[in-house]
Design a protein that fits this description.
This protein is 43% helix and 15% strand. With 382 residues, it is α/β, with parallel strands linked by helices. The protein folds into 2 domains: 180 residues, Rossmann fold, CATH 3.40.50.2000; 174 residues, Rossmann fold (3-Layer(aba) Sandwich), CATH 3.40.50.2000. Strands 3-2-1-4-5-6-7 form a 7-stranded parallel beta sheet, sandwiched between helices. Helix 1 packs across helix 16 and helix 8 packs parallel to helix 10. The longest helix has 17 residues. The chain is globular.
């Protein structure tokens, strides 16, 4: 099979959730399926990360995203005789020469008021219309959770019968520290010499970092001195507002910012955390919760959207819009070692159900089910 993939997410300097999704999928299937040719389509910003005999990278210069999606890419897919094309986004070539599979991780930008207000009405209408066309053009739609599947069907009725729910998988390095001293050394590299609470994500409004900071500020001075709050974010966007709030709450001496943390270090930070706290208002899946559980961290998270699907009965849930409830949950677990250990053990066991290799094979099964016969190259093209 000749499988095409939109690989523009592999840009230098950042690690995104979509990039992790593609990286995990490729890591397993490139190794296990040498009979498949993986054609990865990027632009001038793409940094190839994977080399193998069955992997081919294509650099297609991009000036206008819409033209790249609908013209440049479609022409190249035909020339390369691609049999199935996977887009990790809610878009793809509407006149694709082969079956199109799109991925809808969430519909946050259609649902949350703070994101709807960012776009003028005409642009919201255009994005909604473009999404509807992509849904109609797609042979299958992959999504991460039942919550997202319900949102997709509510916004795009034409998706009925096309949506496949496949959860995100865990990379193998997310596991409890095998050597505690090595994990402590990792924490010390980030200035962490004692116990800490951990958040991993970004500083976009839906992540509710402001609610986390308000709850943390309500802890006693003694508890804050004993347990720093560590905020790990892969991008600086929104950090200035968070730093302002930290100063206003007068907790700057107890808050550590960490950015661009490699996955291997991140596993160590999860594993040494006293608590992992994730009060997000909206998630299509919530991968950091799963990663934290896999590394043995007890979890407090929001009771909203997909997070109960991910964490099951292995987390302490809170209303993300109630800082007092979040404060009470943090205080409760900080004072109850046995409960922290119970949640950590439950979470570790649950995380094993999200095996990266099993999930990657499930995605590939969806793609193989859409496979079209390989057409000959148009005359004159090679």
């Amino acid at each position: 099979m000749r499988l095409g993939i939109d690989a523009r997410e592999f840009a230098g300097g950042t690690t995104t959730g979509i990039q992790r999704y593609l990286r995990n999928f490729l890591a397993v299937n490139v190794r296990e399926r040498p009979d498949i040719t993986f054609l990865l389509y990027g632009n001038q910003k793409t940094v190839p990360h994977l080399r193998a005999p069955n992997v081919q990278w294509r650099c297609l210069p991009e000036r206008l995203a819409l033209w790249w999606d609908q013209v440049t890419l479609a022409r190249r897919l035909r020339r390369d005789r691609v049999e199935v094309f996977l887009s990790p986004y809610l878009k793809g070539p509407l006149c694709s020469p082969c079956p199109l599979v799109i991925t809808i991780h969430d519909l946050m930008f259609f649902i949350l008021p703070e994101y709807r207000r960012e776009q003028p009405l005409w642009r919201r209408w255009l994005l909604r219309r473009y999404g509807a066309l992509a849904v109609r053009a797609a042979r299958r739609i992959i999504t991460d959770s039942e919550h997202s599947r319900r949102d997709i069907l509510r916004f795009f009725p034409a998706a009925e019968g096309k949506v496949e729910t496949v959860p995100l998988g865990l990379a193998a390095h997310f596991r409890p520290p095998r050597q505690r001293e090595q994990a402590r050394a990792t924490a010390r590299r980030y200035g962490l010499d004692g116990p800490y609470l951990l958040y991993v994500g970004n500083f976009r409004p839906h992540k509710n970092v402001e609610g986390l900071l308000r709850a943390y500020a309500r802890l006693s001075d003694e508890q804050r001195r004993a347990h720093r709050l560590v905020l790990v974010a892969g991008r600086r966007s929104g950090r200035a507002a968070v730093e302002t709030q930290v100063r206003q709450l007068r907790v700057g001496d107890q808050v550590t910012f960490a950015e661009a943390v490699p996955d291997e270090d991140l596993a160590g930070l999860y594993g040494m955390a006293h608590l992992f706290v994730f009060p997000s208002r909206y998630e299509g899946f919530g991968l950091p919760v799963l990663e934290a559980m896999a590394c043995g961290a007890p979890v407090i998270c929001s009771n909203r959207t997909s997070l109960p699907e991910v964490a099951g009965d292995c987390a302490l849930y809170v209303d993300p819009d109630d800082p007092q409830a979040l404060h009470a949950a943090m205080q409760r677990l900080l004072n109850d070692t046995a409960e922290r250990e119970r949640l950590a053990a439950l979470g570790l066991k649950r995380s094993q159900a999200f095996n990266q290799e099993v999930i990657a094979r499930r995605i590939l099964a969806v793609l193989e089910g859409c496979r079209a016969p390989c057409a000959p190259s148009p005359a004159g093209e090679t």
